[in-house]
Amino acid sequence: LLREGARYGLEIIQTLEERSGLVITEGTIYPLLGRLKSEGLLEAEWVASDAGHPRKYYRLSAQGRRQLLRMIQHWRGFSAALDQLIAESEEMSYAERAGG
pTM higher than 0.70 for the full model? Predict the structure, then answer.
């Protein structure tokens, strides 16, 4: 989500749920955002809001963008390997049913 631009914590939670059905609590997201910031993967800034209180917006740092690209490549390789294993398993099951 942060690849698309800066977001504040509650916005991240709501968007994750809307797009994926994942229910993540504030008690999970804020420590994670803090850890990613301390590792240099995120940058954060307080921005005034119409809601009356400032919101902390998080965005990917340059290092965070590089790490994200590495993780995406890793995930695609992992996903392709799993797809291959599933396909082979399905082929074997089909062959066993056809032969038995």
Answer: yes
